[in-house]
Write a structure and sequence with these properties.
2 copies of one chain form a homodimer. By secondary structure, the first copy, chain A, is an alpha+beta fold. Chain A has 2 domains: about 5-80 and about 195-210, Glutaredoxin (3-Layer(aba) Sandwich); about 85-190, Glutathione S-transferase Yfyf (Class Pi), Chain A, domain 2. Helix content of chain A is about 50%, strand content about 10%. The first copy, chain A, is built from 9 helices and 4 strands; from the N terminus they run βαβαββααααααα. Chain A has helices at about 10-25, 45-50, 65-80, 85-115, 125-145, 160-165, 180-190, 200, 205-210; strands at about 5, 30, 55-60, 60-65. The first copy, chain A, has a 4-stranded mixed sheet, covered by helices on one side. In chain A, helix 1 (about 10-25) runs parallel beside helix 3 (about 65-80) and helix 4 (about 85-115) packs antiparallel against helix 5 (about 125-145). The interface between A and B is medium-sized, with 31 and 31 residues.
Chain lengths: ~210, ~210
């Protein structure tokens, strides 16, 4: 049965789930959520996910939200990208939490505020604050990748597909690949995996749609 | 062997791990990290955790950081508080991620900024922004607890012990139990579990130490 992923192109959190489905070669299809016209706040969507968030994955009678949980589910279901031992699996989970806590929250919010929020609602103080926290996270990631190709063990895992979630987007948010050579090379390695696509090619909806 | 938890009283993330160890009746002891005098940034501590964060758990040759991973480890090790089926375990993980992403990041940062950062470094804009996001998270939690005693299934799980992490602290950060009756009653239920203690009783270090 085809797995459905409720998502939209701009969502880096949805991209983590979409990329995991794609690289694990699962039979899946995206279902467009018209976030920018308020669809995530509709009763129909909130029935699917009371948290009102994208992504949501539906696999038969299993409905899941939270990108990290979807990644873990797909990895368990396919036996791919989950680490090769109990220690590696814990390490993968550690990076998923770190990403959710320290990395994507800052990257996602900063990018949203700088690119998708009306200008009169943007706060320079908040953007500076979030970018400072984002730089601290990027520094941790850059140091971690100094002497290894992948975050956990010697093969790609869902930890990589989580931490990279926002880093392929073209919109400015305080991250420039040139400033982080180890991250830059790691993003190239992920992009070389069979089936990889950038966010706006993997999921429906992009800023281009709204500018026409 | 006694499990060591590197922590300090003010850290709500450490409290989640400490509370899980305590309620699971594990043989554990806290090791004080003098965060406010920069101990988390020392080479010795960063060897323990390159991310420079508390909590860190050491159980023999297993060293783990990230509260969610420690909670998951303790729950797996003891068979307690992890949910009673695969579906419940996924639901538990979903709340752990949600807490890390939507709840604790806002609560922890707001509380730190309002109480522990020098006044000249506080930004009213940032505090207002974070409190707005925190209110959205509290609203989700309040609605979720409208018709149930525990977040997952009919028994306490580490999902409860994660989401409550910052909510027992006395310092102001934009959460008043009176405004959220369902959360208030749920916090009382958790506090009634055998062995429960509030953060400053469970872990060493508190603002009182620094005010003398």
């Amino acid at each position: 049965m085809t797995i459905k992923l409720y998502c939209f192109g701009e969502s880096g959190n949805a991209y983590k789930a979409a990329l995991t489905l794609q690289l694990a070669e699962v039979d899946w299809e995206p279902v467009f959520v018209d976030f920018f016209n308020g669809e995530a706040r509709t009763p129909a969507f909130q029935e699917l996910n009371p948290m009102g968030e994208v992504p949501v994955m539906v696999d038969g009678d299993v409905t899941l939200s939270q990108s990290g949980v979807i990644q873990d589910y797909i990895s368990s279901k396919t036996g791919k990208f989950g680490g090769r031992s109990a220690a590696e699996r814990r390490e993968v989970l550690r990076w998923l939490f770190w990403d959710n806590h320290k990395m994507s929250s800052q990257a996602g919010t900063t990018r949203f505020m700088m690119n998708f929020l009306p200008e009169d609602k943007r706060s320079a103080d908040v953007i500076a604050f979030l970018q400072g926290r984002l730089r601290a996270a990027l520094k941790v990631l850059e140091a971690e990748l100094a002497d290894k190709d992948w975050l956990v063990g010697d093969a790609p895992t869902i930890a990589d597909f989580a931490c990279c979630g926002y880093l392929y987007y073209p919109e400015p948010f305080g991250f420039d690949r040139k400033d982080y050579p180890n991250i830059d090379a790691w993003l190239d390695r992920i992009a070389a995996l069979p089936g990889w696509k950038p966010p706006y090619d993997l999921m429906p909806g992009s800023p281009a749609d709204r500018n026409t």
